[in-house]
């Protein structure tokens, strides 16, 4: 795919919002991509703490409960490409059940991924919709290799790999390209050296980490 002159919407959480980045206009991954490929425009819809699935118990900060499925309707409709980057908050702090692959509504994580992919394909018919999986994380003592221990989590909660696998499986099912950052970004904050060099806290990437994301995404989009 040729990216020059394209308009891209970015739907995401705090990483897409730019937490950990020194200068959003210069260093956040969406704006890096704009400069790298001479995009016409990028529109960024990142809300820190937000999840794909609905939250049943309101959070202390109501803004974090603005789930991806609801916000999908409020983006620019003339975009050529939509990039969705989320799921880590569903893993860390979302109270929605993990769900099953026959779920179709945002009440569970499995259902939310299905619902979101479908609605974006409908809104942006004949355009390109892609998802990026969560990358590895080690945040506040929680390694992605374990189930999040936060009290709000349901007993069916799983390690981050399971959430990644749902996004990949739904992508195959619904013909939505998925960039697997968990497997392919090459940055795992469970390694203390990586954590210190490329993140600010084991979850949010610094300027160098955002450069990695931009390069990975650019390579992926141009391969489509």
Summarize the structure.
With 224 residues, the chain is an alpha/beta fold.
State Rg. Answer: 16 Å
Average pLDDT reading = 97
Strands in their spatial order, largest beta sheet: 2-1-3-4-7
**What portion of residues belong to β-strands?**
5-15%
**Span of the ends, CA to CA:** 5 Å
Which structural class should the secondary elements be placed in?
A: alpha/beta
Helical stretch count?
10
Shape: globular
SSE succession: EHHHEHEHHEEEHEHHH
Low-confidence stretches: none
Major sheet details: 5 strands, parallel
Q: Give the helix proportion (percent range).
A: 25-40%
Strand tally: 7
Report on the architecture of this protein.
β5 and β6 (142-143) form a beta hairpin. It contains ten helices and seven strands. The strands form two sheets. Strands 2-1-3-4-7 form a five-stranded parallel beta sheet, with helices on both faces. It has a two-stranded antiparallel sheet with strand order 5-6. It has 224 residues and is an alpha/beta fold.
